[in-house]
Write a structure and sequence with these properties.
- The chain is an alpha/beta fold.
- It has two domains: 24-119 and 228-281, Periplasmic binding protein-like II (D-Maltodextrin-Binding Protein, domain 2); 122-225, Periplasmic binding protein-like II (D-Maltodextrin-Binding Protein, domain 2, 3-Layer(aba) Sandwich), CATH 3.40.190.
- The chain has twelve helices and 15 strands.
- It has helices spanning 2-21, 26-33, 58-69, 85-90, 105-108, 137-142, 156-162, 176-184, 195-205, 239-255, 257-263, 278-281; strands at residues 35-40, 48-49, 55-56, 74-79, 96-102, 112-113, 118-120, 122-127, 148-151, 170-173, 190-194, 210-212, 220-221, 224-225, 228-234.
- The strands form four sheets. Strands 1, 4, 5, 6, 7 and 15 form a six-stranded mixed β-sheet that branches. It has a five-stranded mixed β-sheet with strand order 10-9-11-8-12, sandwiched between helices.
- The protein is globular.
């Protein structure tokens, strides 16, 4: 009898220890803790901190609404260079990437994307009067004296390379502010980033000696438009989290709430993602 009792108690203890050590899903853990940590790159208008420390941006505010509806009360930001966001997510330094990150097949192999929340094109800024007459990436490629600054890890690097610009004339910088500084100091003759992001930086810099190229020709790669679609990114294992996130995002699209948030950050109806999905963008 004693042996039976001991055996039963041992079994109960083993089950209890296993239950205690078992970690719930990322969403479940966030609901229990009352907060979730998100990675961002301080890139306007997607995700950045205000002077008072408030985390905001289109990607942040969309995620904030969805996460609250999924039971997560608070978002905590983890500032990371854009090029290190994917590695940081994989290393569990944070649980989501809310940085307006473009969905593309290369990134799809490393992270799990939600469906896109916006669609957008590229933009170029130069010194006042556009002294080098740069209206496209090809123009930069064809001008041997022209260098262009771009944020490390940004999708524009691939576009610049495939437009024929050699690596030694693509100057990678850690953030958008550094790109502006490089242009102001004549270390480069142009800077590039997405349209709303560039406009936000120009508005912030308030420098009359820098201007956005009004007639910029959108790049294409291998004959295909490079119009980008940005989305929140999860770890590969968080499929249930992604599905619940997508369901709430779809409701926001249908109600018009998504557009209302986007408009607060300089986007228009033309930048809505339509019916595009992460699966399509990932080539699945």
């Amino acid at each position: 009898m004693k042996k039976v009792v001991v055996l039963v108690m041992s079994l109960v203890l083993t089950i209890s220890l296993a239950a205690c050590g078992e970690k719930g899903s990322t969403l479940d853990e966030a609901v229990k803790k009352g907060y979730i940590t998100v990675g961002f790159a301080n890139e306007k208008p997607y995700a950045y901190k205000e002077a008072d420390g408030t985390l905001t941006g289109e990607a942040v505010e969309i995620a904030r609404v969805i996460l609250e509806r999924l039971g997560v009360k608070e978002m905590r930001g983890e500032l990371t260079e854009f090029g290190s966001l994917v590695a940081g997510l994989q290393a569990e330094r944070f649980d989501l990437i809310t940085a307006g990150m473009f969905v593309n097949p290369n990134r799809c192999s490393a992270v799990l994307f939600a469906n896109p929340e916006y669609s957008i094109g590229e933009a170029l800024a130069v010194k006042e009067g556009n002294p080098h007459q740069l209206a496209s990436y090809e123009d930069v490629a064809n001008n041997g004296d022209a260098k262009v600054a771009v944020m490390t890890g940004a999708v524009e690097i691939e576009y610049l390379e495939k437009s024929g610009i050699p690596a030694d004339r693509i100057i990678q910088v850690p953030d958008q502010a550094s790109a502006i500084s490089a242009l102001q100091a004549d270390r480069v003759q142009a800077i590039t980033m997405t349209g709303p992001s560039l406009q936000a930086m120009l508005d912030s810099a308030n420098d009359e000696k820098i201007e956005r190229v009004a007639d910029f020709k959108q790049p294409s790669v291998d004959g295909e438009s490079v119009r980008g679609y940005g989305a929140t990114a999860f770890r590969q294992a968080d499929t249930e989290f992604q599905e619940k996130y997508n369901a709430e995002l779809q409701k926001m699209k249908e109600s018009g709430e998504l557009l209302e948030i986007l408009q607060k950050f300089g986007f228009t109806e033309d930048e809505l993602p339509g019916d595009m999905t992460a699966d399509t963008l990932c080539g699945e």
